Amino acid sequence: MASRTTEILGDLMDDSSPAESLTDRLVVACAVAVSVTGVGLILMTDSGPAGVVAATDEAASTMEKLQFGLGEGPCVDSSVTGRPALHPDLARTGPALWPVFSAGALEAGIGAIFAFPLRVGAIRLGVLDLYRDEPGHLTSDQLAEALSFAGAATTILLLLETRSSPLGSADADRLDDVIGHRAVVHQATGLIAVQAKVSLAAALSLLRAASFSAGRSMEAVGRDVVDRALRFDDDND
Amino acid sequence: MKGSTRLAQVFVELADTLVEEFDIVELLQVLTERCVELLEVDAAGLMLADQRGRVQLMASSVEEARSLELFELQVDEGPCLECFASGQAITNVSLVEARERWPIFTPEAVGAGFSATHALPMRLRSQVIGALNLFTHADVRLDDDDLAVGQALADVATIGLLHERSLREQTLLSEQLQGALQSRVLIEQAKGMVAALTGVTVAEAFVWLRSHARRNGVTLTSVASGVVDGSFDASVLAKR
Q1: Out of A41, B139, B142, B201, which residue is the most buried by the measure of CB atoms under 10 Å away?
Q2: What tens digit of pLDDT does each residue of B80-136 get?
Q3: Of A118, A151, A166, A142, nearest to A9 (Cα)?
Q4: A15-44: buried (b, 16+ CB within 10 Å) or exposed (e) per residue?
Q5: SS3 A197
Q6: What's the whole-number mean pLDDT along residues B19-31?
Q7: Looking at per-residue confidence, does B15 or B28 come out higher?
Q8: What is the rounded CA–CA span in Å between residue A136 and residue B71?
Q9: Are A106 and A90 contacting, i.e. CB atoms less than 8 angstroms apart?
């Protein structure tokens, strides 16, 4: 089934501009599709924000830099809890939670923030922050679209993190929706991480690469891993 | 259906769970197991839909790969997806008569040894957030009392998802749903790690993780997190 996330990834890859700007194109496309004022993308590690990847405009950039510098804000919260942090009225809910961040964000003209964690279970990659200059809820259609873009951003960050060379058009087929996989893929990721002594993020990439080179689905290769028909041990690979 | 005393015990157990700090994945897991017991069905699974409308298996009473597949392939078709789309309960569907209705799902379900299936919606006001899916080996009917109990169990699952705060804001539901879906993925990753570390199957790894969580009064998700970040030594599980 072609999910909306897969569709978004396809559209981003079709664009012939350099692969390095994939994340720039993603935030712009997200702002247009969800119809918000701006969008920022921030990298997260277990210890906090690790860098601003992309921002559509000055206010989005300020919003991300504040969170990066202060280590507080909706993106930090959503990364820790693994849940979206939705603040349709920042002036009302923000100051009590993050006084310094909120003051800066409100001054930059931000009225509402919607932060979506980019995670695959324990693999913590970043946060997609959408903002609006006026307070107000996202409609359920906007929320669904934002979640689809979060899925696309997760897939892209995962590929970027575990690849040394830039993404090319040959990667288009591999840009499937990483969140939508069945349980067996996530179980296999755990097995591979232990067998190959790598992080879960790297393990997921190994599984993806094995699936790609074998021309089989990640579910099928994952099943072999779970059944121990395929191993990723150092001495056996 | 099992006797009313047992039914009362189960709802007391669930109510107790809801007032304490609890793990949503564990609660849903217990619910599927109680469904099998109370309704005398052979398999139960709970599917949640994210706001993009995609259903994902959150908990099931069975761990066998072939049966799990039955829930998972309903991303594309089947009673759960139909129940989710319509918001209506789908009950007493005899699988011999369902080949045209679900051409991929039905042969798989029959192949896994099932003859009848049902799907009950997890509803919150006007929104359907998931479905409880039941299977029996024999082609038997569930009567209205059974279905009412099944629906009540599905409602407990919905309440569990929303327990933390009152639903003043529309945003809360999506926060809870996304959090629950991520917890499930984390637990699958931890199952794989425990399996690799100790040489057991992923199904056994899950049993170990759950019983460790219960014995120590901690949540399943926190044990899984510990396995994944290395703060919990999974080989402890194997020594018991």
Answers
A1: A41
A2: 989 988 999 999 999 999 999 999 999 999 999 999 999 999 988 778 888 999 999
A3: A151
A4: eeeebeebbbbbbbbbbebbebbbbbbbbb
A5: coil
A6: 83
A7: B28
A8: 37
A9: yes
Reported ipTM: the value is 0.84
Residues of B with CB under 8 A from a CB of A: 50-54, 57, 65, 68, 72, 75-76, 169-171, 174-176, 178-179, 182-197, 201-202, 224-225, 228-229
Closest CA to B175 of A131, A44, A116: A116
The token pair that represents A63 in the structure block: 């919003």
Selected residues 179-198 of chain A with any CB under 8 Å from a CB in chain B: 179-180, 182-184, 186-195
The C-alpha atoms of residue A178 and residue A180 are separated, in whole angstroms, by: 6
- Of the partner residues B171, B185, B192, the one whose CB lies closest to the CB of residue A120: B185
Interchain CB distance below 8 Å, B175 and A193: no
Whether residue A120 lies within 8 A of chain B, CB to CB, comes out as: yes
A135 and B CB contact within 8 Å: no
Structure tokens given for A169? 């058009």
Residues contacting residue B126 through CB under 8 Å, at least 6 positions apart: none
For the segment A193-202, the average pLDDT, to the nearest whole number, is: 92
Asked if residue A145 lies in contact with residue A33, where contact means CB atoms within 8 angstroms, the answer is yes
The model's confidence at residue B20, banded by pLDDT at 50, 70 and 90, is: confident
Nearest-5° angle of CA A39, CA A42, CA A46?
A: 145
